[in-house]
Amino acid sequence: MTLLIQDEYPKKLLRDDGKRLDGRGKTDLRPIKMEVDVIKNADGSAYIEWGNNKIYASVYGPREVHPHHLAKPDRGILRVFYRMATFSVFERKRPAPGRREKEISMVISECLEPVLFLELYPGTSFEIFIEVVDADGGTRCASTTVAALALADAGIPMRSLVTSCAVGKIEGQLITDLSGIEDKAGESDMPCAISWFNDEISLLQFDGKMNRAELDESLNMVRNAMEKIYEMQLDTLKQKYIQIQEQNEG
Amino acid sequence: MENNEEPEQDDEFEDEETSREIVAPGEVLTEDVHNFIPGRGAILNKKGDKIISVIIGLKQIKKNYINVIPLRGFYTPQIGDKVIGIITDKNPVKYKCDINAKYEGILKIKNTVKHNKMRIRGNQREEETLEKLYVGDAIIGKIIAADRLNSPEITLVGKYLGRKSGGIIIQIDPPKVPRIIGRNGSMIKMLKNLTNCNIFVAQNGRIWIKGINIEHERLLIEAIYKIEEEAHTTGLTDRMEEFIKNETKRRGME
After folding, report:
1. Which of A5, B183, B184, B242 maximizes the CB count within 10 A of its CB?
2. Domain harbouring A62, CATH code
3. How many domains does chain A have?
4. Is A20 within a domain?
């Protein structure tokens, strides 16, 4: 057995028939599977499989803040802990939280804050723990999606759910939902999140080159993709209760 | 003896106005904002042209209010609620107890004994009362002061209140408590009659159980968890009665 270590990225990211390396069309999403209430000890929890990404999220709160000096007297705080498992990426990831993880934690927390009624819970904290078990591009989008699902599952009042997806450019073509290779070898990458309350953009990061017309088009593309994911989120949340109803009421 | 003297409580899950429709946060409940007012668990959206839900729950239309009955959530202390707490800390001035809320409940010494029964013998007073409760004791208390900013205050003076010894305490989701009691206490009466157990259901989702033997207690706990899981279905009282009768027969504990 030889160990294959891929140092170089493939030169062509689009196949001859115009499809992507994993056989998807330009606006196709990777297969998504969601589940709620997977961790018994948490107040609310959710799990997502988005292509090769496997992510758990658990929510606790409202509860007292530790350390106490972080508490705000007029409103509650939302703390997000995004962590990657050491075995989640190809080369072993050092277990200590790095710069990237702290940034993503902050980004997700700022993305979810506007949908919560934090002003109703002064002096307390809501905590979201996101554990990436397997990573393959677009973990911050998948994490935001699953964190919103876990918050809703915990019964915490929210204005709406939050859905996230990425758009990008490879070989001059706009595509939705980039995989790991497309993310690294492509031209640009734009993770985007929407809070459905009043259709506001909640997260927008950008990396690479794109002109103005392409940006407008990619925002339209990502909206279509997010609408599909939003349907799945709602379905997952309700299915848990609908199943019990159907079983018992016949 | 251990009765839940709250027969007036409505079972919001069993209400005729409550539909079987499950709504998620952000879902539109109605677009008719002229005839309906957002009630519990619902808000107007930013433009003011739709009423949306803020929690996962069951949609309920009561007169011209639209409510959402929560299926999951946390306990918020309210004045008059009876709660089951566990003493976590004590000092010469007060006890602290865990009541399953976001803040710890405070139990002052003066609220542990009746006013006319307090015996004052020099400096002995505080020590005597402090002897009454220990860390780890379970108590049934009533909330006498609660707001959004401060820790709730608890009293032990009153009917059915005080320290509990013996029995089992189990924990369920606080929003499902009305379902355990049932409309006019129908569910809890049925559970008591069929399992011969004493039950006390507290508003914070904790339930105190004491039966004649462990088999009956075990059956009751199973039944309570089943009610919690199926709280959003119809005809639950009849189904639970059937379940308990079948189980008693199957386990041979007449």
Report:
1. B183
2. 3.30.230.70
3. 1
4. no
Residues of B in contact with A155 (CB under 8 A): 55-56, 70-74, 173, 175
Rounded to two decimals, the pTM is: 0.90
Burial-class residue A92 by CB neighbours within 10 Å (0-12, 13-18, 19+).
Answer: exposed
Question: Which chain A residue has its CA at the smallest distance from B234's CA?
Answer: A249
Query: Is A10 a domain residue?
Result: no
- The range of the structural domain enclosing residue A219 comes to 32-249
The DSSP code sequence of chain B is ------TT---TTT-TTEEEEEE-TT-EEES-TTT-EE-TTEEE-TTSS-EEE-SSEEEEEETTEEEEEESS------TT-EEEEEEEEE-SSEEEEE-SSSS-EEEEGGGTS-GGG----TTHHHHHHHTT--TT-EEEEEEEE--SSS--EEE--STT-EEE-SSEEEE--GGGHHHHH-GGGHHHHHHHHHHTEEEEE-TTSEEEEEESSHHHHHHHHHHHHHHHHTTTSSSHHHHHHHHHHHHHHHHT--
CA distance A202 to A220: 15
Range among A48-57, A196-205, B131-140, B208-217 with highest mean pLDDT value = A48-57
Residues of B with a Cβ under 8 Å from any A Cβ are: 20, 22, 24-27, 41, 43, 45-47, 52, 54-56, 70-74, 102-103, 148-149, 173, 175, 229-230, 232-235, 239
In a domain, A60, yes or no: yes
Q: In chain B, which residues have pLDDT < 50?
A: 1-2, 7, 127, 130
CB nearest A234 (choices: B20, B24, B71):
B24
CB-based contacts of B66: which residues, under 8 Å, 6+ apart?
Answer: B29, B30, B36, B37, B38, B39, B42, B51, B59, B60
- Residue A223 pLDDT > 60, yes or no? yes
Quick check: helix, strand or coil at residue A91?
coil
What span, in angstroms and rounded, lies between the C-alpha atoms of A184 and A10?
11
Task: Scan for tokens 């115009």, then name that residue.
Answer: A18
**pLDDT, tens digit, for every residue of A63-91?**
989 899 999 999 999 999 999 999 999 88
| In-domain check, residue A136 | yes
